[in-house]
């Protein structure tokens, strides 16, 4: 569960979270690292997407994962097979990661590894289509996943996640022949909430649609690195 | 989102919620109505299960639905086709129904209908596998749904929902041939969290497994009515 007000300290926890998220982002920028926050309902396929992405991009990018789960290190253990730093955070009864938890994960990354060698940190959030969208953690972009098994109306019924997302993966499209579902209607519902979000229909099982996602990730990292270099040049010029 | 502490009033909202849930339950008892709280991830099939259940039991039970959604009345409109009272509650940014919202729904039921004529009220919660399990609304039993598309490990990773459930429906079992999933392993994971929970594997699409669920619902209502009569007899005796 989560609080938005701390009665003892008398502070608005959402505002405090936002401030800390901004500090996290500044720290990622200092490291020269791009950060993506992955969010979805339980079982939409965040971990398997990360497995495929770590495998596909291992030659091109240095990656790490901050892995959030209420309990267990089941997902963290799956991802450690890919020879990348994986920091596991158990949120206990909390239904989302917050900026403080991710700051703790970043501290562990800094302690045990050399973060300046990294290009990209994935944050895998707790499986929940509602609350994680409210709590920034310091990411540069938000990636939402929606399994097509969840139904066509979900973007209308859970609007915040879809409004906040910079990129949306429609997952498990290999199951489309066995579902009474219209992919175009899902996409229409998404566009109703967020006309500009980038949408990738994918199947981690068959590999369909994954290449454009990999390229999008690489492009975001390259753009960030370029803009960081640009900023450094600007500083020299001025 | 939800708060657990109210800074202005200085009260623990979870305790306040529990007190109000107890009042709701007492009111349901006064009406002679049994209440089931349906909870799951988004898209696990709560609404279609209700559609099938309202259709199957319409000759035997007088039913109503209190329907919770963040936004829209899409689900409420689907259920109104079944000629039962449906009270729609929009929770806004809140990720779960609480006892106060359900008290409002009960008030609407009382205002527009004759609740003493009812046998059974279903509460359909917001789609979320985490937060609704923490907030009682006055139900007599909690029903959790888990779609087999969500994966085998979910009961281990989201333990509270599975520990709290009195009854669990494993939904979408018609998709089992197309998934790399072991139903026995899901059931083992559930049993690890809750050894005694009643489990019904079902498919709303094919109808498989629904009859035992309908019978379970009828039995709960009959047991409640019998125990209410017993209590009334006890009162006369004493």
Report on this structure:
By secondary structure, the first copy, chain A, is of the alpha/beta class. The first copy, chain A, contains eight helices and nine strands. Chain A has helices spanning 13-31, 46-57, 74-80, 99-112, 154-157, 159-164, 183-193, 210-237; strands spanning 5-6, 11-12, 34-39, 63-69, 86-90, 120-124, 141-147, 167-171, 198-201. In chain A, helix 1 runs parallel beside helix 4. Chain A binds chain B through residues 1-7, 10, 14, 41-43, 69-72, 74-75, 93, 95, 126-131, 134, 147, 149-151, 153-154, 156-160, 172, 174-175, 178-180, 205, and chain B through 1-7, 10, 14, 41-43, 69-72, 74-75, 93, 95, 126-131, 134, 147, 149-151, 153-154, 156-160, 172, 174-175, 178-180, 205.
Structure in a nutshell:
Two copies of one chain form a homodimer. With 238 residues, chain A is an alpha/beta fold. Chain A is built from eight helices and nine strands.
* Largest interchain contact: A-B, 45 and 45 residues
**How much helix is in the residues of chain A?**
40-55%
Secondary structural class of chain A: alpha/beta
- The number of distinct helices of chain A, counting runs of at least 4 residues, comes to 8
Sketch the topology of chain A as an H/E string, one letter per element: EEHEHEHEHEEHHEHEH
List the strand order in the largest sheet of chain A: 5-4-6-3-7-8-9
The pLDDT mean of chain A sits at 93
CATH superfamily of chain A: P-loop containing nucleotide triphosphate hydrolases
